[in-house]
Amino acid sequence: MDRLTAMEAFVAVAEMGSFTRAAARMRMSAAMMTLHIARLEERLGVRLFNRTTRRVDLTEDGRQLLERARAALHAFAAAETALTPGAGLSGRVRIDVPASIGHAFVLPALQGFHRLHPDIALDLSFGDRGTVFRADGFDILVRIGEAPISGWITVTLGQTRLLCLASPDYLERHEPPIEPEDLNNHRCIVYASVEAPGGNPWNFTRNGKRSRIRPPSAFSFNDGAGIMAALLAGLGIAQNLEMLARDDLRTGTLVPVLEAWAPPPRPVVLMSARDRYALPHVRAVMDFLAERVDWGL
Predict the structure, then answer these.
(1) Model pTM?
(2) Which residues pair with 142 in a beta bridge?
(3) What is the pLDDT of residues 65-97, one digit of tens each?
């Protein structure tokens, strides 16, 4: 049995929570993935996963092995790089980014990244901002307004604001709101999620005064692109990040409302665990995201 491949298979299953998805990630059959795990369990004399028809969870022995296995794989990758300093960077980097941010800024930069680093493979996860962002299994995180993870490398890209926006057409047909409470008389487009199916409250701040409104929902979406499309169609008022609306604000297809009540700016950051950032191919991706991507800030 190839012990290194078996260890890679174990980490893949632990991070993906599925033999099938892990096999796809490693480009091997599900049967071969199962065989690698079975042989590893046989060699170690412990059970690493609890398997059900719906999910795969680590046992206590598996949890104890996971960090050691990751460290061993990281050390091997670093040793390979040290022995071949003149070779082009290669490896696989897993990135988690909010969906609307990923579509607006990361996807347009991929062609340039591929030209610069053709042998680095990227696994992109476009998360739902309505759910808790888990750091497990990712090399790099893009976060907005979240506290940095203790011990992680953090690069601040800039700041953005959460603005209330509307189209000029909508404001021609409806009196613009002056106070946050005026939103109760408007058609509002809200972001809804599994945790908040009725939409998240909107927070406002002005001269130290805070206001928290749960606006009436004319439309709700769990997708930032849907909210932008509804805004541009003149269907109501929505809260969205200024960085996502930059071009529309510049051309006047969207205008801010209640701008004096906008909450404080939020930091936009990249984060990577120190052991992952130490790997040259992960650091190369971090540098590209920090230096070569126009984040609209």
Answers:
(1) 0.70
(2) 270
(3) 988 888 888 777 767 666 555 457 888 999 999
Answer left, alpha or beta for residue 236, where phi above 0 means left and psi between -120 and 50 means alpha: left
Query: From the CB of residue 45, how many other CB atoms can be counted at a distance below 10 Å?
Result: 7
- Measured over the CA atoms of residue 227, residue 232, residue 235 and residue 236, the dihedral's sign is positive
User: What's the CATH number of domain 1-87, 1.10.10.10, 3.90.220.20, 3.90.650.10, 3.90.1010.10?
Assistant: 1.10.10.10
C-alpha 131/C-alpha 33 separation (Å) is 30
User: What CA–CA distance (Å, rounded) separates 221 from 207?
Assistant: 31
3-state secondary structure of 57: strand
- Which run of H or E residues covers position 146? none
Say which CATH topology domain 162-261 has: D-Maltodextrin-Binding Protein; domain 2 (3.40.190)
The identity of residue 160, as a single letter, is T
State the Cα–Cα distance between residues 162 and 98, nearest whole angstrom.
Answer: 15
The radius of gyration computed from the CA coordinates of the chain, to the nearest angstrom, equals: 23
Partnered with residue 189 across adjacent β-strands are 219, 238
Do the Cβ atoms of 192 and 201 come closer than 8 Å? no
Here the tokens at position 236 are 């109501």
pLDDT tens figures, 96-153: 998 889 999 999 999 999 999 999 999 998 876 444 455 667 899 999 988 888 888 9
Question: 117: which 2 tokens?
Answer: 């680093």
Contact predicate 249/242, CB 8 Å: yes
Q: In 10 A of CB 152, how many CB atoms?
A: 17
